[in-house]
Amino acid sequence: MHILVLGGSGRTGRLVIDEALKRGHKVTALVRDPEAIAAKDGLSLVKGSPLNSSDVENAFTPASSDPPSAVIVALASTRTSDNPWAATTSPPRLMADSNANVAASMKQHGARKLVTMQALGVGDSWPNLIFIMRWIVKGSNMGQAYADHNMVDKEVKESGLDYVLVRPTRLTEGESKPVKTFGNTGKGVGSAITRASVAQFLVDAVEQDTWNRSTPVISN
Predict the structure, then answer these.
(1) Are 174 and 196 in contact (CB under 8 A)?
(2) How much of the chain exceeds pLDDT 90, in percent?
(3) Which label site among 5, 15, 128, 173 has the fewest CB atoms less than 10 Å from its CB?
(4) Nearest Cα to 118, choosing from 86, 70, 181, 75?
């Protein structure tokens, strides 16, 4: 399978690329700085921004005889630090506009599978986010990221594609561990999941139809 990855230079996106390559998939990554990612067999790097529709289209066209048949979006809104109150450095619709651009190109090239990383607390999983986190999201600059995620949730569901909107709980570092799913809303979900586990699940979601048109909440 040929997979296009958006957000491939991020902490989770790099693991997604490695996991997909390990499974024998061909990967194209659209990144702002190709030099930030080491060259690897099976990996093609395209310079550009997912906010630019022509850059997204370029990621589909260089290998027109074998365009990507699936897309994994591992983008995340950024702040000047991990502190929830740190200043935001991403536009308000970073993820929404990026997903919209990739959905348009997918339809143009006949690709059907879109797997997007979101977060516990998005959409109808909000009530199952612990109270202190809901308070932080409402009162800090994390609110912009959640508003963006919620726009993705609405717009991707209306795209007509075979989407999987993956909602991991709190991300941690560490090796891949067994992943549990907690329906679409996360009732009873655990407290954390490693980025490596999320990367594994994102590639699973591309390969399988189990979670098509759903919003699985995942945790270790």
Answers:
(1) yes
(2) 96
(3) 173
(4) 75
